[in-house]
Amino acid sequence: MVACGGVLMAGQAPARPVVVTVGNAVRWRGETYLVTALQGGSVHLLSQDADGEDAVVLLDSLSRSLGFAVLDTPRPDDTITDVPAVAVRQSLGGAAVLEGLSDKAREMAEFWLDHVLEVHTGLPGFATPSTEPRPCYDLERTTLRQRYETKAAELCAAHHRVSAATVERKRLAWLAHGVWGLVDKRRVRGPSTHGRVDERVVKLLWKVHQRHRKRSVGTRSRLFELLRRACVRKFKKKGEQLMPSRATFYRLLDRLGILCGRETGRQGTGSHRPEPPFTLAMATTPGEQVQIDTTPLDVLGVDETGRVVSLELTAAIDVVSRSILAAVIRPKSIGTKAGSHSRRRGGRATKAVDALLLLAEMCTPQPMRPHWSPRAGAKGSNLPYAQLVEADERMEGAAARPVIIPEMIVMDNGKVFAGRAFMDACAQLGICVRPACYNSPTHKAIIERTFGSIKTLFSQFLPGYTGKDLQHRGKDVAGERLWRVDQINDFLQQWIAVGWQQRPHEELRNPFLPSMPPRTPNQMFAAHVASSGYVPVRLSAEDRLRLLPTAWVTVTDKGIRLDNRTYDSRAISPYRNARSGWPGKGQRWPVRYHPYQPEKVWLEDHRNGTWAEADFVYQRLIGDEWSEHIWDQATAAHLNKGGSTRDEAAIARVVCSLLERAGRGPSRTAAPQPAPVDRGMVVGPQPIEDPYRNIPAPDYQHITSLPSMDVDLRQLCLPPARFPRPEGLSQPGADGQPDGARGPQAGI
């Protein structure tokens, strides 16, 4: 069986490949051929025309040629215009669901089945194919309403009190649920799990149990007392009457599966254990089932701003070959708040865009990097390198990691994968998504076990390994020389190509020859390529843009405002203050943005399928690569200084300073500030009261200088003014002073 991809038109999403198997009739180059053999990436075609010639063609070329079609495989867009009555009646089976019912219930279902079939098709269920319908049930002469009334009249004549509405209800139930819709549900109703206890009390019991699940483990008597109090508060005087006895309450807990006291441990109530029967995830072809999840990596690293942060790993693994299709590492840290009612800024974790980037990496070969080991290349690995390069030229010089397009993805119910962005991206790529049950990691046990192997084979050999809990953590992990996040991500990609894809896996054994040694994921992928072929899916630039998150914003005269940033360019001028044409959106346009490359945004015009690019208006102040995380940290630092989120230029300068500080590395001269010591209550004699405690400390930064003198400094040295000399005083000397002034102190 081979999956053949269709030809993609501009602006369309990649279609789900058509399945081709040996024996299919296909149309190629205007002639009909029969698929006789599949060998690697080649297809052997046997011509069905008298003068035709056989051909051997590459599967990729065959699927991309114009006019190619599989003649005996129905497509999803084919519509059935005329269905014979025999074909309709052949699909009306399903009477096996009546097995196990009582004789009375089975007789009533079979009774109604014959009458419903006669109303719907004109013939009862026991009629032979050559039987002609009665005139009153002829589909060409009577309407559905007339057949309802005719059937009701016949049943009333046979002493069955039935109306036309009842016949209509039975027919609609049969169309919706098959034969099971005709079964009287009162005859299959089983005993209640809560016995004779009032249903309102049972609902209240579940609420009380859920409200106290995070508290310390208690006994059944505590839950009984909590339920009694809740019943009294809700039902007032009837609360004591509705409460069951203590013995009935304990039996009710057993039937409902609520565990208390010694029946459960600290690790939980056993909800993570799957219900029997226990079955493994089964798949037969690559991409049939891919599991994806996120987990802590148990390693510390340094982010873009130079801070020590924890790391998270998001990965996707193929169930058949156990190949890690894509993996990405993202920091995880909490943010800071400028006030008690303000927004927390500067925090980060795995986002929905990381899951979208993971989907794009699955469709793209991993390129080799210059500093990687030669063993990480696909050319010298167990992959069928020549066949892969022949089918997809992008595999030339790629790493030893296979490219597998998922058909179905099994995920958990986290907001990273359960969001609309991830669902829309999977629908665009034609991928079916199946969420696992809540609190059931065993439903995706393969990816969970793979995470444990990554932590054992990769994480614990890195500096900054923290262990799985506090008991396994070192004393000074944060003080080690840590790698940057991008460096750890580079190490992981190289380790996947060398240490995982080329390492034998115990689950990859030949079921017919169990004595043979286990195979590697690359060997298993090569074996499936030889039997089912390989068809690449190429994502265009528009397809990659559609994988990005979408924000609906209004284009004003100042440009596009997104996350306290303004984007503008001449390309978005036609969309300023214009209506988008989307129902219910008004003047809001769909804008695609990249949280890790926020220098640009892209506005999508659905009317003509074009994209308008806009740049951040203050990018010149930063002049380097940055991300939304750095912007959030710069915004938090700017708000702590009393700034505003509207001051984009100031925040851009803070972003530039953060990047420069991160480039210099952590400071080794600044001594850490000691934490304040809590010394408890004051004992002993009271300390002497400080006489200056009520005097405020002077603010030297705001002390003003004394005012300047309004007299010229040279006038201070002038002689005194001359007045008429009184009699008896001597004449002044040559120096201008009186003779009596000269004395022992005249020279001072």
From TrEMBL:
Domain of life per record: Bacteria
Residue span of region Disordered: 718-748
Transmembrane parts of this sequence: none
Xref: Pfam families: Mu-transpos_C
Chain ranges of the Integrase catalytic domain: 282-529
InterPro entries given in the database record: Integrase_cat-core, RNaseH-like_sf, RNaseH_sf, Transposase-like_Mu_C
Name of this protein: DDE-type integrase/transposase/recombinase
Species name: Streptomyces lunalinharesii
Lineage, highest ranks first: Bacteria, Bacillati, Actinomycetota, Actinomycetes, Kitasatosporales
